[in-house]
Design a protein that fits this description.
CATH topology: Jelly Rolls
Protein name: JmjC domain-containing protein
Pfam family, one: Cupin_8
CATH architecture: Sandwich
CATH superfamily: Jelly Rolls
Family: Belongs to the JARID1 histone demethylase family.
Distance between the termini: 53 Å
Number of helices: 12
Length: about 450
Amino acid sequence: MKEIEALWEEVRELSLGNSTRVEQLDSPPTPLQFLRDYVSQNKPCLISNATLHWPALSSWSHDSYLIQNLSSAAHVSVHLTPDGQADALVPLNDATLCFASAHVQRMPFNQALNLITNHTSSLVAYAQQQNDCFRSEYSALSSDCESHIPWATEAIGSLPEAVNLWIGNHRSVTSFHKDHYENLYAVVSGEKHFLLLPPTDFHRMYIKDYPAARYSYSQETGELTLELEKEARNVPWCSVNPYPSPENKESEMSKFPLYFDGPKPFECTVKPGQILYLAYGYFGLKILKKFDDFLAAKKKKAELKKKKKKRQKPSIDTALDVVGQFFSMDVVGIGYLWTGLLPCRPSMWFHHVRQSPDAGGRTIAINYWYDMQFDIKYAYFNFLQSVHYQSTHVPTLPETASEDLDSESACDSFAHGFKDELSADGSVANLAGTSIKEE
């Protein structure tokens, strides 16, 4: 249907603009400006000079500071892969594609840092866990950052539900996915490079079902092995790799013409001191039962909140909250995150992330997940994804992939964060020179 392709263009003309750059602010907005111009429009923005007052921007550049402050803390979660691709599509047995999850191991922070900065290692380590890990595993560092973003908290009307810390290197890559949150992403050290795609461009992501697999570590060989999960299940995931190798580029472009021939994505580099805002409104897949339970709990919470509001007089906060529930669209884009910048990412936007390390060989970032409104925009998106769209181009699906047009689809990182937390077990030897026991 030509109407679908017209939608991609019209969203950009009316709301997002035809540039491939994410709109940038020189300083943090007022709560009203943030709500009016970005949250209510589901429009991303990059905010400079947003976190320059954080002690973390200077303190966390020193490994000794981090190690000293986290020496008495419980072990931290580290995701291990052979190539930096976790929660991504990876060939299994050199043929079939599967959705591969990292091996998750808990270890002392100093050993985790050694793995991250050891670029000659056969393992790629990424210290992260999408379960509010900053306020649990890294609580000893809480005084170095704000517990929430004040102007965002006032605009959205609630405190963040989760705050996550990410410590990795240039080898870690995050494939296209979305979050069911209003996402504010701040870089502390190094740079983050984002590609952003709006929910309206759902069909350009080629969401397919892939068999779930997981890396396991062998103490005998010191290597990771990719194996299908014992309880077979399929995971709906984005098929597009926006950065194919030169030898595969022509093949990938022929498989996914809606992505490669469509509107160019938006670009954004986030540096220290900046915040990227990524709004919601894109993909919604049922991947895990635990995530279904999470959504049910959110719905119940919203109903209780609604009953409570009926007994209260309307306030300016309530009015702003209502305004924030209407009409928002999202954009395709590439984003780079630098220290001092806070990228604001609207919820449910598709985003792909790469990173560049600092002089110490690591990239550090912290993101704030604020509760999203499951409102009329979410209903519009569900309707859009139910529309079967067949391009004039008929791509060849990757082997083992099957089209999944009927299920709710969301390449959702949050669900997989809980999955990884629950499934980590066993022990790993010789990862950082010593034997590590899972706790």
